[in-house]
Design a protein that fits this description.
It is a single chain. By secondary structure, this protein is α+β, with helices and mostly antiparallel strands. About 30% of the residues lie in helices and about 25% in strands. Strands 8-7-9-14-15 form a five-stranded antiparallel beta sheet. Strands 1, 2, 4 and 5 form a four-stranded antiparallel beta sheet that branches. The longest helix is centred in the N-terminal third of the chain and has 24 residues, at about 5-30. The structure holds magnesium ion (2 copies). One magnesium ion binds near residues 105, 168 and 232.
Length: about 250
């Protein structure tokens, strides 16, 4: 667990604001008929303009700048010229950059046109669970307070938490300690201290929590093929409470 100085958090804020601006631009382009490859090109353009490195490209061999995960895909979907968005899809877009040696990481799930009631509820509950989790980023709380906030809200709504993938600390590495499970584990978890920066990322399934990985070695899908949603923010623990570094409010 690495804590950051105020200067480091300033750089991480810059990195995450580039992520936020990019996700906002992509959000405006998400529509019926666009390919996920074209969305990836928008992310690449933003990286070139802002002189940052896309964090996922080349990460353990991942081939693109964005992770795009449609409907039953949970996370780590690969952009493709063959994959056109259709009315009624939901698409999770996960993006990260490296800027001046520090990382930003954030994700959003969007509807493509009008989506059915199951998907609407899934998006709303997942988005809200992240908000509730962020409120728990208070000095003196434990990481498990974040986990508990997500799990209790999501499960009370009759939806399931993915267990195989978790949130993480973030800084000079894309993934640092501590792990942030979206469900409560039996072991006691670390306290939140000032300067900790956390990438909190609930992944929520409409059916079972179980997932599997496709033959491409990356794309994670739900075992029952029911839809899944994913939201993520990078959040700093400060004396004044949570600071959402990847907030998109300046770009919406
Ligand atoms: Mg991410
Ligand atoms: Mg992440």
């Amino acid at each position: 667990m690495v804590v950051k100085t105020a200067d480091e958090i300033t750089i991480m804020h810059e990195a995450n604001q580039i992520v936020a601006e990019t996700l906002s631009r992509i959000t405006r382009s998400v529509d019926v008929g666009i390919t996920t490859w074209e969305l990836d090109m928008i992310a690449e353009e933003c990286c070139t303009q802002k002189k940052v490195r896309p964090a996922f490209k080349g990460y353990r061999g991942f081939p693109a700048s964005l992770c795009v995960s449609i409907n039953e895909q949970v996370v780590h979907g690969i952009p493709s010229k063959k994959c056109k968005l259709k009315k009624g899809d939901i698409i999770s877009i996960d993006f990260g950059v490296e800027h001046r040696g520090y990382f930003g990481d954030s994700a959003i799930t969007l509807p493509v046109g009008k989506v059915d009631a199951t998907k609407r509820k899934l998006l709303e509950v997942t988005r809200r669970s992240l908000e509730l989790a962020i409120e728990k980023v208070q000095i003196g709380n434990r990481i498990s307070d974040i986990s508990e906030a997500i799990q209790s809200y999501v499960e009370n709504k009759g939806l399931a938490i993915v267990r195989q993938f978790v949130g993480h600390g973030i800084g000079t590495a894309l993934h640092e300690g501590p792990e942030i499970p979206n469900f409560v584990q039996s072991e006691s978890s670390p306290r939140i201290v000032e300067g900790l920066v956390l990438a909190i990322e609930p992944m929520v399934n409409a059916g079972s929590y179980k997932v599997k990985v496709l033959k491409d070695g990356w794309t994670v899908i739900t075992a029952d093929k029911k839809p899944s949603a994913h939201f993520e923010h990078s959040v700093a623990a400060t004396a004044d409470g949570p600071l959402v570094l990847s907030s998109r409010e300046n770009f919406e």
